[in-house]
């Protein structure tokens, strides 16, 4: 079948799904939506896999009434992201069926949700395919709107609605920048097609247009200071939506940035340096915030920001590599970024799914209220643990592979006899990445330990039980894929490597092949991860055998002689990260609310003390700007005074001005 | 292979030497050098008590911790002889494998649901997090100096020529000693002999471990000591032939152990709430090394 037929078929299936779901009986809707998601995924994966193997599908719809010529072009970069989207969406759809079960009585709302999910998946896929500015913006907008509507599923809840609207507004600020960028290219080159951006770059300064694109896409991706929608929208959305959003939608910002990056013609070094600095800061900022928050979905959202930082470091390394004409560094940087995109979409959706299972069973997102869930939900606990290990970049899981590639890229940057400023920058990003790894260990031991280990901290009215198998299944699947990346990284590396080779402007790549030693070390990380696994098993086995012959007793936890311990004396998550929060109090702002004890408070009364962490950028920058804006707008309040007569007067003024303007040829 | 054997050998008497030094300086008779090993063997033979609060995590964590240390030791070379594992960028693997072990030791402490063990876990996570940048800056600078990115190649091509390089060697040794002290929770960052749970770091994390598990954790920390000793020895071995290299190795381990013993005899523990800053200051020493490397390469003109 030709690609255009396949793509039209996928559109037809989308339409069929959107129309048929409301007419199906209620109990079949969820399954129908899953089938449609899988169908769309399979059909769109065919051209994507084709593109990865070398024959790029290229479709041009000429003389379309609205857009002029629209080209649909699936190159290997699009294909990589399309496959990630399809993988995550299938998992999300399957998980979502089980997750949304408790909302079964909201029939209309739920069927809207399934329809939107279909639209959401397809719009994301089309974002990767469209190569025309206007068409791209339209599907981009469709994606934002459908995801916004998915986020506010629980729209009767005020915080959900606020978070959703916040997301919606921020996405449109992003679109504004994208529109500006495309219009700039259009006026300069007369075309909205993507290759026109390349021609623009070839005879203009690259930096400024790139920055506009970067801001537009960076809002989606969540680079600081453009990240503030993430920690609000992710907790508000249903968990499978957060999983897909964090796994994929954020990555489409990265897709956009990569798309523009590969069209750049000059200024590589300066752009690379800007991206690296911003990315290291994003990583450190994201993970520090993740470490202190007690809402576990918010914590995961901040952790997404951190991972965007890591991906950004990869992109920056790649760009500096192009600037230095160091082909190996280019390849390592971009390959690391692409691999980390895949890896993050896997472990972040795994984490959001297992966190969602916890939420479904306990109805709280506050980790301080939980504890000991490993006894009641052992499978979810182990899955979360695996996700936590992987996201910390610990072997034998997949996070290590991409971080290793990026570390190697940085090392090349250090060794590659660049100017001293760059070497220093590289050393700092090296240390920054290590610091991020360290803090993420703290953040995830805290999160896992507080939610799943110890004893329940509060009494839950409904005893949590392990979630249904249909919710666990996608998580097992993700686990298998993650292990396959962690243990056999060379396979995935070679795919990503091919993509980078096909995309980087050929002039800047010397024909030098990747030295074997590096390929060997990528393979070695996989092999030794296997050895590590085997060694663990062996030692555990020996221990098991030995302890069979020994006298094993159980008793209470050692309480230092205190004989009446309660679950409340357990170390809390807040105290676990308190000393970190205190050290970095200039980044993570702690707001405490309490009343000081006054001199005349003689008798003890019930008191309240609350403390929570605020986002630095929201508090110090956005809120200040918005406050000032509101203050100055106050002076113009008289214009909108609610009197219909004045409004008519405004109309008359306007008409008169237009009239005079035409007479005196002002307009 | 050689390095693995030597590290295991050194680990047998390392802690014994520390304890012996401490007993000599304080004028006590003290136990023999092999007493710590005898303790470990005795623990291996003992039964165990498990808390009712704990789960599977508590059971597997010591094994994973021990496995991670064995894996890390396999990466350490011995002069011109490679370790079992050697590839470009293997020190990243080294740091992250140790991280995996530490992750499990932290969550196993949280698994007991105790108020003290959580505190120790939190401190351990915080302190080792701050030690990480120091290690990476140091290794990055050494990579810049030698142009190689694996432990073996870095150490094999590291040779001291000018005055600056001697200073670098001293500084690097200092950083590694400090990292070893942080990673093994010794004075001045942590006092393993303190009697109060509130002031412990590592010791309080393993309060509930017993029997075989405790034996593994203890022996793991002896191995870790010897491993850092081996890294320090490698700074000086270079491409020396075996008949020189082995004495250098033994001397370094010996001196390292005595230094720790002396440190523990004559210093007090840092204030707990300033510990993190002290450890972070290590990164600035590492940066000093980076500066020195830039000087040596003549990039600072």
Helix and strand arrangement:
The complex is a heterodimer of chains A (667) and B (301).
Chain A: H1 3-23, H2 26-53, E1 58-64, E2 68-73, H3 76-99, H4 107-129, H5 133-151, H6 158-189, H7 194-203, H8 206-221, H9 230-236, H10 239-261, H11 268-292, H12 296-324, H13 327-362, H14 373-376, H15 378-391, H16 398-415, H17 420-452, H18 469-487, H19 489-503, H20 516-548, E3 552-555, H21 573-583, E4 588-594, E5 609-615, H22 616-633, H23 644-663
Antiparallel strand pairs in A: 1-2, 4-5
Chain B: H1 2-25, H2 35-45, E1 48-51, H3 56-75, H4 90-111, H5 115-146, H6 151-156, H7 163-183, H8 202-205, H9 211-237, H10 242-266, H11 272-296
Helix pairs in contact in B: 1-9, 1-10, 2-9, 3-4, 3-9, 4-5, 5-7, 5-11, 7-9, 7-11, 9-10
Mean pLDDT of chain B: 86
Tell me the count of domains of chain B.
Answer: 1
Task: Please tally the helical runs of chain B, counting DSSP H or I stretches of 4 or more residues.
Answer: 11
Radius of gyration of chain B: 19 Å
Give the low-pLDDT segments of chain B: none
Q: Write down the secondary-structure element order of chain A.
A: HHEEHHHHHHHHHHHHHHHHHHEHEEHH
User: Termini of chain A, distance in Å?
Assistant: 56 Å
Give the overall shape of chain A, derived from the CA principal axes.
globular
- Portion in helices of chain B: over 70%
Mean pLDDT of chain A: 87
Q: Which structural class fits the helix and strand makeup of chain B?
A: mainly alpha
What are the low-pLDDT stretches of chain A, counting only 5+ consecutive residues below 50? none
SSE series of chain B: HHEHHHHHHHHH
Number of DSSP helical runs of chain A: 23
Strand order of the largest sheet of chain A: 1-2
């Amino acid at each position: 079948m030709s690609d255009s037929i396949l793509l039209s078929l996928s559109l037809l299936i989308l339409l069929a799904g959107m129309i048929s779901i409301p007419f199906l009986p209620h109990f079949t809707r969820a399954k129908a939506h899953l089938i449609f998601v899988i169908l769309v995924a399979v059909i769109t994966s065919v051209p994507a896999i084709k593109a990865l193997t070398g024959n790029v599908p290229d479709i041009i719809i000429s003389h379309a009434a609205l857009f002029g010529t629209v080209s649909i072009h699936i190159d290997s970069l699009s294909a990589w992201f399309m496959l990630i989207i399809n993988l995550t969406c299938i998992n999300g759809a399957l998980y979502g069926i089980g997750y949304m079960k408790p909302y079964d009585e909201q029939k209309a709302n739920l069927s809207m949700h399934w329809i939107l999910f279909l639209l959401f998946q397809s719009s994301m896929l089309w974002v990767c395919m469209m190569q025309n500015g206007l068409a791209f913006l339209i599907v981009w907008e469709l994606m934002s709107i459908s995801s916004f509507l998915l986020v506010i599923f629980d729209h009767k809840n005020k915080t959900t609605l606020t978070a959703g609207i916040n997301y919606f507004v921020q996405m449109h600020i992003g679109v504004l920048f994208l529109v500006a960028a495309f219009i700039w290219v259009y006026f300069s080159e007369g075309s909205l097609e993507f290759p026109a951006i390349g021609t623009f770059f070839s005879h203009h300064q690259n930096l400024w247009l790139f920055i506009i694109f970067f801001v537009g896409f960076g809002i989606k991706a969540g680079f600081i200071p453009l990240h503030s929608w993430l920690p609000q929208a992710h907790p508000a959305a249903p968990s499978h939506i957060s999983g897909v959003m964090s796994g994929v939608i954020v990555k489409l910002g990265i897709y956009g940035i990569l798309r523009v990056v590969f069209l750049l013609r000059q200024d590589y070094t300066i752009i690379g340096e800007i991206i690296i600095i911003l990315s290291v800061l994003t990583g450190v900022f994201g993970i520090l915030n993740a470490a202190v928050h007690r809402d576990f979905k918010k914590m995961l959202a901040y952790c997404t920001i951190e991972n965007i930082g890591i991906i950004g470091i990869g992109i920056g390394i790649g760009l500096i590599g192009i600037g230095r004409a160091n082909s190996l560094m280019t390849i390592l940087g971009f390959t690391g970024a692409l691999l980390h995109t895949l890896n993050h979409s896997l472990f972040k959706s795994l984490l959001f799914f297992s966190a969602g299972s916890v939420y479904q069973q306990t109805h709280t997102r506050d980790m301080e209220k939980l504890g000991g869930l490993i006894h009641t939900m052992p499978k979810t606990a182990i899955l979360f643990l695996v996700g936590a290990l992987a996201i910390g970049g610990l072997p034998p899981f997949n996070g290590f592979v991409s971080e290793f590639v990026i570390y190697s890229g940085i090392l090349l940057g250090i060794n590659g006899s660049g100017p001293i400023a760059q070497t220093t920058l590289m050393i700092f990003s090296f240390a920054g990445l290590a610091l991020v790894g360290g803090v993420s260990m703290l953040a995830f031991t805290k999160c896992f330990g507080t939610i799943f280990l110890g004893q329940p901290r509060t009494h839950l009215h409904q005893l949590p039980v392990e979630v249904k198998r249909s919710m666990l299944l996608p998580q097992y699947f993700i686990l298998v894929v993650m292990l396959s990346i962690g243990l056999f990284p060379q396979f995935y590396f070679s795919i990503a490597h091919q993509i980078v080779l096909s995309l980087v402007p050929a002039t800047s790549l010397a024909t030098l092949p990747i030295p074997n030693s590096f390929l060997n070390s990528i393979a070695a990380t996989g092999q030794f991860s296997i050895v590590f696994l085997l060694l663990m098993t062996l030692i555990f086995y020996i221990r098991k055998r030995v302890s069979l012959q020994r006298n094993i007793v159980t008793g209470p936890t050692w309480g230092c002689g205190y004989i009446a311990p309660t679950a409340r004396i357990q170390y809390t998550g807040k105290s676990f990260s308190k000393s970190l929060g205190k050290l970095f109090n200039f980044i993570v702002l702690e707001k405490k609310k309490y009343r000081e004890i006054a001199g005349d408070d003689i008798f003890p009364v019930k008191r309240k003390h609350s403390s929570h962490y605020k986002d630095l950028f929201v508090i110090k920058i956005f809120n200040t700007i918005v406050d000032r804006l509101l203050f100055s707008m106050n002076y113009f309040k008289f214009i909108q005074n609610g009197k219909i007569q004045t409004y008519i007067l405004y109309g008359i003024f306007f008409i008169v001005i237009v009239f005079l303007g035409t007479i005196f040829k002002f307009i | 292979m050689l390095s693995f054997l030597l590290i295991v050998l050194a680990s047998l008497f390392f802690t014994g030497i520390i304890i012996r030094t401490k007993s000599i300086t304080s004028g006590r008779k003290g136990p023999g050098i092999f007493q710590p090993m005898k303790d470990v063997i005795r623990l291996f033979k003992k039964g165990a008590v498990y808390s009712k609060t704990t789960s599977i995590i508590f059971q597997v964590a010591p094994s994973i911790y021990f496995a991670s240390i064995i894996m890390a030791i396999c990466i350490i070379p011995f002069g011109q002889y490679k370790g079992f594992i050697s590839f470009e960028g293997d020190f990243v693997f080294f740091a992250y494998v140790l991280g995996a072990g530490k992750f499990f030791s932290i969550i196993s402490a949280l698994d007991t649901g105790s108020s003290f063990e959580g505190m120790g876990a939190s401190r351990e996570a915080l302190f080792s997090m701050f030690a990480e940048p120091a290690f990476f800056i140091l290794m990055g600078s050494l990579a810049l100096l030698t142009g190689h990115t694996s432990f073996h190649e870095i150490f094999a091509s590291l040779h001291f020529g000018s005055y600056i390089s001697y200073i670098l060697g001293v500084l690097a040794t200092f950083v590694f000693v400090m990292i070893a002290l942080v990673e093994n929770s010794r004075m001045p960052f942590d006092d393993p002999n303190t009697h109060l749970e509130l002031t412990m770091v590592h010791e309080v994390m393993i309060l509930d471990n017993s029997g075989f598990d405790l034996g593994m954790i203890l022996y793991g920390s002896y191995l870790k000591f010897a491993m850092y000793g081996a890294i320090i020895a490698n700074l000086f071995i270079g491409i020396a032939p075996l008949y020189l290299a082995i004495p250098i190795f033994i001397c370094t381990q010996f001196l390292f152990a005595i230094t720790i013993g002396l440190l523990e005899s004559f210093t007090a523990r840092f204030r707990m709430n300033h510990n993190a800053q002290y450890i972070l200051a290590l990164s600035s020493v590492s940066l000093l090394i980076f500066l020195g490397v830039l000087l040596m390469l003549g990039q600072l003109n």
